[in-house]
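Re-run requested by the PI after the first attempt was lost when the workstation crashed. Everything re-entered from the original request form. Ligand of interest: adenosine-5'-triphosphate.
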Amino acid sequence: MSIRLTKVDKIYGQGDAKVHALKELSLTITTGEMVAIMGPSGSGKSTLLNILGCIDRPTKGEYSYKENEISHIKAKEMARLRNEVFGFVIQDFALVDRYTVFKNIMIPLSYSQKAIKSKKEKVESVLKQLNISEKRDVLAANLSGGQRQRVAIARAIVNEPEIILADEPTGSLDSATGQDVLDIFTKLNSVEKKTIIIVTHDKEVASCCHRIVNIQDGMIV
Ligand SMILES: Nc1ncnc2c1ncn2[C@@H]1O[C@H](COP(=O)(O)OP(=O)(O)OP(=O)(O)O)[C@@H](O)[C@H]1O
């Protein structure tokens, strides 16, 4: 088993502005699983993804990763886990437009403490894996939506994470391009044995996952 949340609450703000985004949410995700998280807008999907990826902490409850309780670890340790264990594919791609494709994918490696032998070769191999080698020296600003998403995925996997977290990875793509991106995730899961957690509204995406977690009002239904 890889991840376990036990009775997790997330509360944003205080007083009148208080939002109870997750309510006693418990969830276990096994190594090698591919899981879809679905639910209406505002139900808490992104909040859940942020907590799973150590971007944010629960207000209450427990988070254990590989049987270790991590909800109270120090910020520095949390940052290390975030960088080494998780790869993020976030909404709107979040690429640096004035950087080339190559430089965008290199970003996580510049911060990485992992012993990856040749960082340049690693970027080249990921470019190849995602079929974007010929775009290597193109500025991110000049890519199509589908190409941008490939670069975003390349950047998420270059640091060899165990777990990939994706927020609406096909949301802004046409259906053929979305299918290509979905195939990439499916392959990362089946061939490379990555654990994959995808927030999605797309039924096509969800149907390719082993399991669908439905959230409503901060609770699993
Ligand atoms: N940083 C924040 N501060 C205050 N409230 C927040 C914050 N982030 C999220 N919320 C609130 O928490 C609730 C859950 O938001 P969240 O973004 O997790 O939902 P979601 O299911 O991902 O929605 P969507 O599908 O629209 O992205 C919402 O009511 C939202 O307004």
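Saved to the shared folder this time. The radius of gyration is 17 Å.
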